[in-house]
Amino acid sequence: MGFPETRLRRLRRTPALRRLVAETSLQARQLVLPVFVREGATEPTPIGSMPGVVQHTRDSVRKAAAAAAELGLGGIMLFGVPTEKDAVGSGAVDPDGILNVAIRDVVAEVGDALPVMADLCLDEFTDHGHCGVLTPSGTVDNDATLAVYAEMALAQAAAGVDLVGPSGMMDGQVGAVRAALDGAGYQDVAILAYSTKYASAFYGPFREAVDSSLQGDRRTYQQDGGNVVEGVREALLDVEEGADLVMVKPALAYLDVVRAVREAVDVPVAAYNISGEYAMVEAAAAHGWIDRDAAILETLTSIRRAGADVILTYWAAEVAPRLS
């Protein structure tokens, strides 16, 4: 019997050797923590389908942001949960709306120690739950929505945000937001574009987190799950319109798209490890079916390996101390 001349196992023998030749790294600075801030809340409210995640109060989100800065995270992404909604999402552009107030609170807390990001979309603020304003026939009006996005971007910039995250998948949204920001003197506010966002079955827990009022679905503006080339085109268009970073959402079911986008663009690529992906691991771990800690690291490493420079994940603050 012959013996192998090549023995790859030599470099797997100890943790130190495996660390020496590791091809993919995961660091706290690459992780962004998404958080939800509920208007009028007096104490954090647990989200049933996302164990360990809460709807924050204004006070608790400041503490979460301070902790994220201390941990060396790459940023915090804010989502607002208003008490009142209307057909045009008025709360999104109101300087005293919950999202803009939360931006001011968090910026006051962390200053330049942590990039403060905010979701730029109407779905949390509309009574119909869609990401834009509607035509009389009930379809989303792309160009009318762009005008609202521009106004929303200005409100967030005035509140002190570092990066805005247009996520509604309206054609031309990045260009409209960039033009509005530049025209008002906010040239330094960056755009993290939700460029390649698919109509996914994995958004369910998020809709609980933001008290979504969605009627119908979003398939006329979010992408079809089978399309990769289209996803790359979306990212390239956003880069042309001025995106500073582009994002693929969801992450796990679209790792091939993350890789394709990474190879196509010359800006940083983010991926959103979304609520349903989080909930699956948490549920399986709660039943004792998987090793929770190992599964979390394996999940996040897979997203990095696919090519993401930045990962939005609800595990960010928990995982960061394990990476130091």
Describe the structure.
The protein is of the alpha/beta class and 324 residues long. Helices cover 39% and strands 16% of the residues. It has eleven helices and ten strands. It has helices spanning 15-20, 58-71, 98-110, 142-159, 173-183, 204-209, 229-241, 255-264, 275-286, 292-306, 316-323; strands at residues 31-38, 45-46, 54-56, 75-81, 116-120, 163-166, 190-197, 245-249, 269-273, 310-313. Strand 4, helix 3 (98-110) and strand 5 form a beta-alpha-beta unit. Helix 2 crosses helix 3 (98-110). The mean pLDDT is 95.
Defining traits:
single chain; 324 residues; alpha/beta; 11 helices; 10 strands
Biggest β-sheet, characterized? 8 strands, parallel, barrel
In N-to-C order, the SSE pattern is: HEEEHEHEHEHEHHEHEHHEH
Helicity range: 25-40%
Rg computed from alpha carbons, rounded to a whole number of angstroms:
20 Å
Distance between the termini: 46 Å
Oligomeric state of the chains present here: single chain
Backbone structural class: alpha/beta
Low-confidence stretches: none
Sheet-strand content, in percent, reads 15-25%
User: How many helical elements?
Assistant: 11
Shape assignment: globular
Main β-sheet, spatial strand arrangement? 1-4-5-6-7-8-9-10
**pLDDT averaged residue by residue:** 95
Number-wise, the strands total 10
